[in-house]
Structure formats: C-alpha cells, structure tokens
Amino acid sequence: MKINKVAIVGGTHGNENTGVFLVNKLKNALPEYKGLKLKYLLANPMAIKNTRRFMDHDLNRSFGIKELQNIESSEYEFNRAKVINYELGPKGNPKYDFIIDMHTTTSNMGVTFIFSEINKINLQLACYLSEKNDSLNLYYHPPESKDVDSDQPYLNSISTFGLPLEVGPVPNGLLRHDVIEITEKTVRDTLEFITLLNNDSLPDFPDSLEIFQYIETILFPCDDDGNITAYIHKDLQDKDFCQLKQGDPIFYTVDNKTIYFENEFPMYPVFVNEAAYYYQDIAFSLSKKISISTHLT
Amino acid sequence: MKINKVAIVGGTHGNENTGVFLVNKLKNALPEYKGLKLKYLLANPMAIKNTRRFMDHDLNRSFGIKELQNIESSEYEFNRAKVINYELGPKGNPKYDFIIDMHTTTSNMGVTFIFSEINKINLQLACYLSEKNDSLNLYYHPPESKDVDSDQPYLNSISTFGLPLEVGPVPNGLLRHDVIEITEKTVRDTLEFITLLNNDSLPDFPDSLEIFQYIETILFPCDDDGNITAYIHKDLQDKDFCQLKQGDPIFYTVDNKTIYFENEFPMYPVFVNEAAYYYQDIAFSLSKKISISTHLT
Lengths: 297, 297
Known about the structure:
Two copies of one chain form a homodimer.
Chain A: E1 5-10, H1 17-29, E2 32-33, E3 36-42, H2 45-49, H3 65-69, H4 76-88, E4 98-104, E5 110-115, H5 120-132, E6 137-140, E7 161-168, H6 177-198, E8 208-219, E9 230-232, E10 249-253, E11 258-260, E12 268-270, E13 282-293
Parallel strand pairs in A: 1-3, 1-4, 4-7, 5-6, 6-8
Antiparallel strand pairs in A: 2-3, 5-7, 8-13, 9-10, 10-11, 12-13
Helix pairs in contact in A: 1-6, 5-6
C-alpha cells in the first residue's frame, strides 16, 4: 500500500505550544516532502487562543463514532471534532491516510510514540523511529474493549495509520528549544519513513520490539469531599518507564505518611504527574514491558 | 518592633497548586506558631477552581492604590483585591504585619525570596533564610519610580514586611513533592525568624549580602502580527542566576538562526521562559549581582 496524503496536526490541546509552533513553522518551511501531499492543521484554535487544554471538553476524547454522529451536541470541541472529521476523514474512510498529532506532557515521557492499534505499518514505523532515536519509548494503549473494531475517541483514530506523539517533560504554555528540536526531528523522520515505505525501500528491522502495554490507571487518594490527600512521592516523580517494585514509595500524604506500591509484580509507570489529568484525579498509569513480533502480515 | 499577626497566602495565581495545597495543609497542621496569630488565605478562589492564573486580570498586579480606590472596576481580580485589602490591610496601615505569599514558576528559579523594598527586617530575613538554605536566591525588584514611596501592585505590598516566595521550576497545575517540601520548610523557617525577631534573639548576620537587582525586561522577537519568531535558546534555558556574557546564545529563530547576547557587561538572567509572561511577550529579565550592607537602621 502507498500513503500519499499526510496530515500534520498541532494544538489538539491548546496549551501544548510545541505543536502549534511547529505547524506554523513547517507549513512554510516544508509545504511538501518528496511528493507527499502534506496538510497542516491547528486542531483547537479557540483553546490555542486561550492557552487552555480545551474549552468545554477534551478534543482528543471527542472522536468516537457516537460523538461524531450526534449533531445536536453544543460543546465547542464536539463541533470542532466534526469539522476535523469532514476535513481529514471521515473516520473509517479518510481522505488522509496518515495523521501525525504532536502533543507534549508535563510527565517525563521523553519521546513516546503511543499506538492504540498494532498493525504492520505502525510497527515498522516504531522500528524505524527507534533506530533514529535510541531513547524512543513505545507505548501501547489498547482499546477499552477487546473487540478488535472497538472505537477510539482520539483525533488519530480518524485514520488507520499515524503517529500520536508525546514529548516531555515540558510545562504547558511555553516553548522549549530541546522539545521543539526533537519533535521536529521525529516528524521529519516519520515523513522519510513514509517515502521509504511507498518506495518499498524500508531497511530490515529486528524480529521483535519491546513495548510498554497499558494495564491500569492509578488515582490519587482523595477525601470524602473529593480533595486530593496525597501527591506523587519524590522517588516516583520523573520515573516514567522505570521499573516500580513492591515496596517502592508512590504517594506522600498531607499528614506526612508514605504510601508504598503493593503490587506483587513489577510494573512500569507512565504519565506520572501529568497536570492535565488532575481534574480526573489520575496520578499515573501502570504498564508492563512486553516483547512483540514485528512479523505481522 | 514586634510582629504579631502573619498572613500566609496561597493561590494568588490559581494554577500554582503548591501554595493552595500548603494553605489547606497548614491551616490544620499549624493553626498558630509560638504565640503568633496566623491567618491562612486562598487569594483567588475562582482562578483556583478553574486552574487558571487569573480570570480577568493578574491578581498580583491589582494592589496599586489607584486600583484599590476605584470601586467602579468590574474585573473579578480588582474586586477580589479590595476584599483582601479589607481583610489583611488596609494597605499602609495593615491589620497583618507580615504576609507570606507562596508562588511557583516554570523558570529554574530554585527558591527565590523576591523583595521590592530593602528594609532592615527584609534583609535580616534574607540573611536568616540564606543560612537555612545555601541555595536561596535573593532578587530585588525595585519600584518602577525612584520615588521611595512609589506604589507597588503586588499583594505583598499591603504590608511593609513579608516574603514573596517563588519556587521552581514546576509546571502549572500540578504538585511536586520536592517543591512542596522546600516551600513548607521556608515558610516554617520564616515563622521561626519572626519569633526570634520578636524576642530579640536573632543570631549575628554577615555584614553584607549578595543580591540580584532587576535591571531590564527582554522581550521575545516578534513579527509584524505580534507572533513570537524566536524562543529561548537551549543554552539559556534553565540558566536563571547564571552569568550571561556578550556572545552567549539567547534566542533561536523560526528560520533556525541563533541570536546572541550583545550586552558589553555580563548580566544574570532571571525568570527565563516563565509561561505566565508569554502573553506579554516577556522572555526573561536581566539582573546585576550586587553586594549590599546589612547594617540598615
């Protein structure tokens, strides 16, 4: 198969300035790439203007089939999602074969390629990017349901192939040179991958790949009024993708007590202390490290 | 003189979670301190609820005499400032002798005591806190006007004495264990200082103190439409209070050029890449390092 049209998206969250900056930079500096048709898009212009993640609802949770079909919804992001779906989609039969969606995080996630679907092209891209960047992390968040056609709410779910990219740590609302640099490099490496794929010129890849697979979400301890009563312990802070063992500190409470990890089996925390998840009381997620074959057909 | 009543304030900026957390924690854990009357205050409850710096106007720029006197103003923060001024002030003749205002910053400011007035008690406190914390930074931002009675717009300006505290780097909208810990320690050290001051039991201090004095504000380069065309160079990122010499990189442009520091004399940058200052296009400030006598009368 050939990928001809690629959408490069920034500002899906309006306070993640890196993607916004790179859309504005690259649409002039890189209007096309070796024959690929590129489309640049600022996904959430109102949130960008207000330097907020979203106005009414998280745009990157607004692309479920049900939400896209409900034309009665009043929220800004549910409407914006439909506009983007008209432009890049429709979901399931999209005009754009491949979507790069540039995100940042306050967590120490380094450069992380998140994929919610394991298919041959996603795995080849993971291999290719891993060779270009030793410290690339691969994070697999499977659909909630075990149904293989299970629906996803992410902007990237409009097309089958793509790169949802997370880079951090970086505070919201600002630009960091190092974060811009590595994000731009990863976007350019991805475009090069697509041209190699189109020309049947991909290099040989290893037989297997190490990825982190999402297992569960860990919430902050809260009191009866819903207020957080403990925060991430300093020993866990910034330790995304580092092994967490039984007995390791995870939280520190308002009354100065340490809470320890009780899981019998070691796990790997991800999205530790992401600011955007506080409103849902999400402290971090747990993943397991698995090896998967790259020989999908 | 004796200081009897101390106000401990958090959430003057609603997305700086550390101060909010510590007000809620300490009002229970530390309702008084060795006879000192303590008042805890969440300064901007609407902004805290929305995890935003402010709703209509920066609360910490709303305490000028002119703004406090104008009862016609509609903005949330101008009204909130008046409420706080009734409660802790009135400015010039306050009910509270000393205000601790806890802030955080996305800049690598470490623990910084900002003082906008050099007086004996502020200098003694600076000496005391410096002995408790080797890496404490002292930053003096003099009033805009040379008039000694020049007005200040900060919450702290309600009282003559106080500790406007900045701790960073930390992203907005989250809690970090290390930042909470050092902020709480500095608050407790300050309360101990006040009791020693009240009992004439302060230790001897060195004859002079090294402080960083604000000189000027450096703006981001912008195009004709007001869009930022360069960001902080990675060599300057996180280098608050480090010497900046002629020829050192300061910005990196959208068309991949480095902009260098042209000042003939070395300076010390502060508030490098603070997210909250982007809307005013402020990139960083410059300060000079000076030594001042601690023997004020």
